[in-house]
Amino acid sequence: MPSSRPLRVDARRNREALLAAARAEFLADGDAHVEDIARRAGVSVGTLYRHFDAREVLVAEVYRQEVAELCTAPARLLALHAPDEALRLFLLLLVEHAAVGRGMGEVLESIMATDSPTFEDTREEMAHALDELLTAGAAVGLLRRGISGRIVLRALGGICGIRTTGWKDDAVRIATILYDGLRYGATNA
């Protein structure tokens, strides 16, 4: 468990290297071992455990970082695109996020079986990010009113939860259908 004191520069660098190495290992091989992660980060296994007292804690932190990064996208997308296009692009980013999470799937499933607040917190962050896009689109008449980010996230969760061959292509197609549905009935559509 992290202390409330700020980390020394070298400790912060080690922690960041461990998180980057863990993300890379989970993407390459969802069954990455702590030894592989430590080796990739250029630190000892003991250093890994000083920062993360269990593999599940490391996975949860990598997942939290992924979601935090993902949830910065709506503001950036809205600055570059009309709200409906920003939503379309964000839906595709959510599908890509599911692909990243797939590499961590087994460990994420074990975390879901615990009382970890990780998933409730990250679901709230993603729903809020979707709310930002949906509200912006509804305000200018490009998207339907009365649809919450939580509902859209639930629909995408079902789509991205499918883990068969070709799931990602199917998820992109279904996300496009969902996007079309969110535009249907909008006042300016």
How would you summarize this macromolecular structure in one to three sentences?
By secondary structure, this protein is an all-alpha fold.
CATH architecture of the largest domain: Orthogonal Bundle
Overall mean pLDDT stands at 84
**Distance between the first and last residues' Cα:** 50 Å
Question: What structural category characterises the helix and strand content?
Answer: mainly alpha
* CATH superfamily placement of the largest domain: Tetracycline Repressor, domain 2
In terms of DSSP E residues, the strand content is under 5%
| Poorly predicted segments | none
Main pleated-sheet profile? none
**Rg for CA atoms:** 19 Å
Could you say which overall geometry the principal axes of the C-alpha atoms support? Answer: elongated
The number of E-state strands comes to 0
- CATH topology of the largest domain: the name is Tetracycline Repressor, domain 2
CATH class of the largest domain: Mainly Alpha
Number of domains: 2
Helix content: over 70%
Quaternary status:
single chain
| Helix/strand order | HHHHHHHHHH
Q: How many alpha or pi helices?
A: 10
Q: What labels would you give this structure?
A:
189 residues, elongated, 74% helix, 0% strand, Arc Repressor Mutant, subunit A, 2 domains, mainly alpha, Tetracycline Repressor, domain 2
What do these coordinates show?
With 189 residues, this protein is mainly α. It folds into 2 domains: 9-53, Homeodomain-like (Arc Repressor Mutant, subunit A), CATH 1.10.10; 59-183, Tetracycline Repressor, domain 2, CATH 1.10.357.10. The chain contains 10 helices and no strands. The protein has helices spanning 9-28, 34-41, 45-51, 55-70, 73-80, 83-103, 105-112, 118-139, 149-160, 167-183. Helix 8 crosses helix 9 (149-160). The longest helix has 22 residues, at 118-139. It is elongated, with a radius of gyration of 19 Å. The model has no long low-confidence stretch (mean pLDDT 84).
